[in-house]
Amino acid sequence: MYQAVVFFDLDGTLMQDDKTVAPSSVAAIHQLKANHVLPVIATGRNVFEVANLMRQTGIDSIVSANGSYVQYQGKFLAAHELDKGLLQDITHYANQHQDALAYYNATSFALSHRDALTVANYRGLGQKAIVQPDFFLREHINFLLTFDPISAEKYQRRYHGYLTFVRNNPRALDTMAWGVSKATGIREILVKAGLTAVPTYAFGDAANDLEMFQLVDKPVAMGNGLAKVKSLAAYITTDNMHDGIKNGLAHFGLI
Q1: In the sheet that 101-104 helps form, which strands lie side by side, from edge to edge?
Q2: Confidence of residue 143 (pLDDT cuts 50, 70, 90)
Q3: CB contact set of 217 (below 8 Å; sequence gap of 6+)
Q4: pLDDT for 156-201, tens place per residue?
């Protein structure tokens, strides 16, 4: 039986600025597992984007795409597929506003069209983005990136009750089924794996970590985290470039 569960955001948290995982963090995760503590990734990224990182760390449970796709111990647990009619509507609406969309599932993604924002976004991620406007018609889609650098307001107003939007970066909005967040994915793991009575911890730094912080017993903010994330934290560790994961886990006696 696990003694605790620890959820790790990736960008700005478990990942360093160059998108690698610090050796101290890898060692800490291995020690967690030896101490019968379950490590789980909780990220806005999709499974295919982090497969190498999961192999490197030995983590096989993940709340991906901000709760849109969840797996436990390497096996599928839950997904929140977006309705085709809803996808057609937001595609038409985004096209009207000359906004690009990226359609995602657990294994791949494609763009509605390419523009300066998408080029900058995927160059920064080191990913090759293909343009396939009909991708969402042929594939199961559980997550979108909506490229709007100004405000989420117009999308939030139009799709209230249907889609949830969270700022991913200055270029784009994470877009999930209504009410889906890292917290909903975490609940699915805890309930379906019978871990609701186990102490829970979470490490994070950004806006998509807020619901997660409100759910777990002990939220840990990275030193580089947003002020509103730090305001919810039980502990503020050092930043993602200075052993923040190791130090936060040690503070709570988990390693």
Answers
A1: 109-111, 101-104, 143-146, 172-177, 163-169
A2: very high
A3: 199, 200, 201
A4: 999 999 999 998 889 999 999 999 999 999 999 999 999 999 999 9
For residue 230, which phi and psi values (nearest 5 degrees)? -60, -30
Query: Which residues, at least 6 apart from 201, have a Cβ–Cβ distance to it below 8 Å?
Result: 4, 5, 6, 7, 216, 217, 218, 219, 220, 252, 254
Question: Phi/psi of residue 198, each to 5°?
Answer: -90, 140
At 183, which amino acid appears?
A
Total-model pTM: 0.91
Residue whose pair of structure tokens reads 């806005």 in the numeric block? 44
d(CA 202, CA 232): 11
Give the Cα separation of 183 and 66 in Å (integer).
8
Q: Is the pLDDT of residue 253 over 90?
A: yes
For the chain, state the CA radius of gyration: 18
The token duo for 5 is 């569960």
